[in-house]
Amino acid sequence: MKVAVAGCCHGALDKMYETLELLQRRHNVRPDLLLCCGDFQAVRNEADLRCMAVPAKYRHMQTFYRYYSGEKKAPVLTVFIGGNHEASNHLQELPYGGWVAPNIYYLGYAGVVRFRGVRIGGISGIFKSHDYRKGHFECPPYNQQTIRSAYHVRNIEVFKLKQLKRPMDIFMSHDWPRSIYHYGNKKQLLKMKSFFRQEVESNTLGSPAASELLQHLKPTYWFSAHLHVKFAAFMQHETNSKEELPKATKFLALDKCLPHRDFLQIIEVEHDPNAGDSLEYDAEWIAVLKATNSLVNVTQSSWNMPEKNGLHDKWDYSATEEAIKEVLEELNHNLTIPCNFTLTAACYDPSKPQKNMEPVHTINPQTTEFCAQFGLTDINNRIQQAKEEGSGRGECEEEEEEEMDSTGSAEEPSEYSTDNSGLSSINPDEIMLDEEGGDEDLSTCSVDPSPDHPPEFSTSFSDIRIMPDSMAVSSDDAMDSTNEDLEKSAMGKQGEERSSTERPLKRISGDENGNGGIKKIKRRNQAIYAAEDEDKTD
């Protein structure tokens, strides 16, 4: 089975699908499935634009609304995760996943599905330690804080995914797993993106939560985006016993969707030739959702997930074979995900712009049906209940401490004691939303090429390959550090990280008032979100 994998789409669906059609015309290659690793930007109307955490100059309608309205239909089944530049109000309607348009499926905050026997999982958003232990409390209309925190990864999603025991074929995250750069051509990466050097050397670039999932799930493939650079790595996992077969993960990060950029990759994946062509639920994942339903938290209270540390009566929420069997019986062994897409908001009309359209908190019928079928908590319904119980600010107030489920504790220290996630003031994991200078205008992604002048695309589409040759793993870069060494390196650097905000870094040339760091932040963000020629001049 041929699977196309795309990096940050930024709403340029027309361009992405035209690329696939061009690939078919020129090379007779037709993917069976398209995966997108975040920043999909499923923007339906002007209200959705206001819920997207980007500076105003980046708020462009792009082309998703054409697929939402039915004007166009995705030519290939598309499965995506959320990133950090999304119409958060739209994706929030589908916390457990669902169709955002015909033939376009969102995996939810975290999710696992199957297609032709291939198991595909993913987690949406990016990691921020100060929001990691909170519940999903945000709802539109967002304020300056919640418009950002809405897309931050939560520990409950990581906990759910860590309950999985069965093998994973493909997994997607928006930000990179921390330390993955040590398993690829690190020299080439730093040559292309020299401003990553400090974070790479201190082992603080990327998500520690994603790294944790990588070591637990050990998928055959792991795809990411976010940093707008193509990078490949090969990670050999340690075995837990002599009987366990060795496992390895092929990691690939994709560039963003722009002409002349290598933003799309085709891979060959083994599949079940007897399986149907419909997207399917994963029975083990459904069983895990049912088992962890009591852990759902829609407050700002911080708490850790259950652990075997003497503080919890239960810590293992993995699905038993009996529980998985019950799910199959509930579905009459028909795991096909229903094509129950429903319009839940007015669609953008270019002839009748509504610039003052306000976002509203919506309960999506897909989520209502899903929760009713499997006996799950409708997170958005719970949020609305919390608002009605006394929140007059449009945000959900914290519940009383005694209402918190006994399996969790707000008093326990976080497993990530400091925000050394690679999202510090000098790390480019997230664009500066209050920045006004010099970034690339993302509207260039949605320019429709004319039939007479088709877009130029990277020559990488001339063949089918798993790993790009330009990012092949070199012997002197890969596998030269064990996980233990990397952890020690990170711990040894924490002191430097904490003091970095108190003194200018040597590589930042600032003025006497210490403003050099701010200028450097802007340049780093420009380098990530700018076009290729701007990257070279930065």
UniProtKB/TrEMBL annotation:
Residues 415-427 have a biased composition (Polar residues). The gene is Dbr1. Coiled coil: none annotated. The keyword Nuclease does not apply. Keywords: Hydrolase, Iron, Manganese, Metal-binding, mRNA processing, Nucleus, Zinc. This is DBR1 enzyme. It holds the Pfam family Metallophos. It comes from the Eukaryota. GO terms for biological process: mRNA splicing, via spliceosome. GO terms for cellular component: nucleus. Residues 385-395, 485-510 have a biased composition (Basic and acidic residues). InterPro entries: Calcineurin-like_PHP (IPR004843), DBR1_C (IPR007708), Dbr1_N (IPR041816), Metallo-depent_PP-like (IPR029052). Residues 396-405, 431-442 have a biased composition (Acidic residues). The keyword Nuclease does not apply. Its main location: nucleus. Residues 385-538 are annotated as: Disordered.
